[in-house]
Specification:
10 helices; elongated
């Protein structure tokens, strides 16, 4: 059973620019998010929200230009840390900060949130991290620990709405049970998975071909780099004659999942099939007619 509860967000576009400064509040929550592009920091750094303790995410392109990378930090106050990163970190172009009303968060609270976010991002393996180490969690009282777990849950629930998917975990098996199980086969390997609200989930233990076709590196560079990244971070493990998924992993689409698994360009709507051989496209066409 899905335990997620409905919630609403209030997004205030402070300067009238949808890509500029945005203040985001969640219903019945003491926290607040501030989202802004790097270029605005000199202009907005005196805002009183940045006087508070908080955690922040810095996002920007990877050095190879293929996808984003992420830095997770904390500050008390946040302003000094952001100013330091403005001067010393070149990669980021977007910041997402979370803080609360004065007195609601202290240094230990935000250190706890930072440690949890880094742990979750490493577990999800959705984006490479610019963080060098895993910080130690501070010692919190039982009450503070419970409060920060709630703060963290609310924060994580907001991030996908704000376009940040670095922490998304695969839905529990029970929640996924209602999904149609699909299979993709090719060159002696088989993968299984299902469509979810997060994207397309490929199951742990699924197989992928050992090598890509030559044209993939030349003409489908993004897919090739994604595949190499998954090998590098351990999501895909090399066996004697194939690759194996070491964990459930969510891809942005069925086609991306199929291309990574087959080592070539692929139409996932046709490659993924149910146990009876019906393609994902055919199954979706049937559902659309019901």
């Amino acid at each position: 059973m899905n335990s997620a509860k409905p919630f609403s967000l209030r997004i205030f576009v402070a300067d009238g620019d949808p890509d500029g400064l945005r203040l985001v509040e969640r219903s019945n929550w003491v926290g607040k998010a501030i989202v802004f592009p790097r270029a605005l920091l000199p202009k907005i750094k005196q805002r009183q929200e940045l006087d508070q303790a908080g955690v922040y995410l810095l996002l920007g392109p990877r050095e190879d230009g293929e996808g984003e990378m992420l830095y997770i930090g904390e500050g008390d106050p946040v302003r000094a840390r952001l100013e330091s990163h403005y001067a010393q970190k070149d990669f980021w172009n977007q910041a997402v900060c979370f803080m609360a009303a004065p007195g609601q968060l202290n240094k230990a609270h935000v250190q706890f949130l930072e440690a949890q976010l880094i742990r979750l991002a490493k577990s999800a393996k959705r984006l490479p991290l610019d963080n060098a180490n895993q910080p130690m969690e501070p010692s919190l009282s039982e009450a503070d620990h419970a409060d920060m777990q709630v703060f963290l849950e609310n924060l994580l629930g907001m991030l996908p709405v704000l376009g940040v998917h670095a922490f998304e975990q695969i839905a529990p098996v029970a929640a996924a049970g209602a999904q149609t199980l699909l299979f993709c086969r090719g060159k002696g390997v088989t993968a299984s998975g299902y469509e979810a609200t997060q994207g397309f989930v490929v199951h742990a233990g699924s197989q992928g071909v050992a090598e890509t076709v030559p044209s993939m590196q030349q003409h489908v560079r993004g897919m090739f780099d994604l595949r190499q990244g998954l090998i590098a971070n351990g999501v895909l493990q090399r066996n004697v004659d194939h690759l194996r998924f070491t964990q459930d992993y969510v891809f942005s689409s069925p086609s991306t999942a199929a291309a990574v698994m087959l080592g070539r360009s692929a139409n996932g709507r046709l490659e993924w099939k149910d146990a009876g051989g019906r393609t994902l496209k055919a199954l979706q066409d049937m559902e659309a007619k019901m």
